[in-house]
Amino acid sequence: MVFETFITVRYCETDKMGVVHHSRYFPYFEEARCAFLENVGANYSDIENAGIMLPVIESYCKYHKGAKFGDRLVIKTKIAGLSPIKIKFGYNILKDGDLICEGFTTHCFVDSLFKPVNLKKKNEKLYSLLESLSE
């Protein structure tokens, strides 16, 4: 399943060259990931209230073109990988149908002490939902 999130570039996200600063794409990924999970009924608050956290353990972004203040962007988010202890989200950001950047974040399922947990055992319902959405 691919979920689309729409954002408009704010002035504060651009640098002196007038393009979105490279560091701003990771918050875009986060916004899209949260929207994806909320859309499927598994928002971050519910997951954390169940005693599971998802810290980022790996992140990557490849830039193809720049975006500028006021540009309307589409972030296409999908589950690119899933195991009982981690999940990988893939992102494509497009402007007017053109790919401007692509990336991913990998997250580990951990408890409140940041010890890895087996999501399939701890919350089989959530794991099954995520598994049904992954490619």
Write up this protein.
- There is one protein chain.
- With 135 residues, the protein is an alpha+beta fold.
- The protein has one domain (3-133): Hotdog Thioesterase (Thiol Ester Dehydrase, Chain A).
- It has helices spanning 25-39, 44-49, 119-122, 124-133; strands at 3-8, 56-63, 72-82, 86-95, 98-108.
- The chain has a five-stranded antiparallel beta sheet with strand order 1-3-4-5-2.
- It starts with a strand and ends with a helix.
Structural class comes to alpha+beta
- Which percent range describes the beta-strand content? 25-35%
The overall number of domains is 1
CATH superfamily: Hotdog Thioesterase
Please give the CATH architecture: Roll
Strand order of the largest sheet: 1-3-4-5-2
> What pattern of helices and strands is seen along the backbone?
EHHEEEEHH
CATH C-level label: Alpha Beta
Which helices and strands appear, and what pairs or packs with what?
Blueprint: E1 3-8, H1 25-39, H2 44-49, E2 56-63, E3 72-82, E4 86-95, E5 98-108, H3 119-122, H4 124-133
Antiparallel strand pairs: 1-3, 2-5, 3-4, 4-5
